[in-house]
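Aim 2 progress update. The chain analyzed this quarter is reproduced below.
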Amino acid sequence: MGGGLLDRELSRARMDGLIVDRDHAEYDKYRRIWNGLADRRPTAIVRARTVEDVRKTVRVAADQGTLLAVRSGGHSLPGLSTCDDGIVLDLSLINYVTVDAAAGVVEVGGGALLGDLDKAGAHAGLVTPAGVVSHTGVAGLTLGGGMGWLSRRFGLTIDNLLGAEVVTADGRLIWASADSEPDLFWGLRGGGGNFGVVTRFKFRMHPLGPIVVGSWTYSANDYEAVLRGFQGLSSAAPRELTTSFELMSNELAVTACWSGAQENAAAIVSPFGNLASPVTGSFGNTAYVDLQKRSDESDAWGQRHYSKGGFLDKIDDAAIRCIQSAVASSPNARSHIYVLQLGGTIGDVEEAATPYSGRAASYYWIANAIWDESSDDMRCIEWGRNSAKSLAAISMQGNYVNEQADFGKDVAFGAYGVEKYTRLARLKARYDPANLFRLNQNIEPMP
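Predicted structure tokens:
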């Protein structure tokens, strides 16, 4: 469809928001997304201000057979929050967070970021568990599952989702919850953006007191002793503790986050600083919002990223060898293997209760290639793919759709397995039979 005709159709829809075409002075600003690897040129970017703007944009895209990308925070690893020659529906102006402290719930606009949610909750001493980078969009994170520092204690983000307002492919506005459109509500909790545009979320919140964080950097030469000790300590940890490690070519960083009673913090957290002789280390109270921002710079906008992940039951010798081998061949000092501890409350939810597949896992790993220059694309992507392939061979079945840089039916099928994929595909046929919402880890409609 020609750009002029599409612009006219969007203009005729009389949006309250801004329509940014290729001639707009700020076109290059608004077409950018987080992953610098995705440099695409949509015909138009609709910066929706209202839910009605969203409905109108969806109708235009459906009526004209135009490619439609939906963008909340713009963090899609494969760059699926933008497109060439189609429409980008930008939700960033639909950004609000309304906390009802007495009820312990929060309503969040479809364009809000994790930092917005964290900050609003902190004022009330409440939290909804989410991811670990504050400039991530709430919408994309939630629709894939949502794991972070408090998930072992309070569950995944989707486990705290009470309802969602969804614009479907035919332009309807639906409220999905356990009591209203329960099948759609099931699909939203891990099925990605396949079923519509979520313009509003309602989450449960939890009281959160002071947290204690310990962070230590070890020499990469000590990785075997550190990771064996890490496995032993983390496997016995109460659910108020979440740990992680990040192995790079020259160092191994270990973090332990405690959200339980303060008097127990030192005894539970400090042993992670004694796994070898740390190069540097810190231990003490940390504001949750500050913890959530600590990866913002290393995961800054504009860098080029290729990442793939998977689930592990334990950090055994095979995993340690595989992780170290991957890092030994890393293309630069920033590329790394990151591992986040799971378990706890995450595993209390039945596997079939949500599309998210990984309830039985104790850890989640991700191979992160990060670089700046396009001339390095091939070798960095190759490292990411090869590292992920090696780790996947010793990993559990299932995957996390939010952190897969490749996309296609094989990726989605591998994430969900036969039974869940089939259920999702039939749900897709009900809510999006023409597959308008296909720029995601796509579920193809199945009658």
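The radius of gyration is 21 Å. Residues 352 and 420 are 8 Å apart (CA to CA). These observations will guide the mutagenesis experiments scheduled for the next reporting period.
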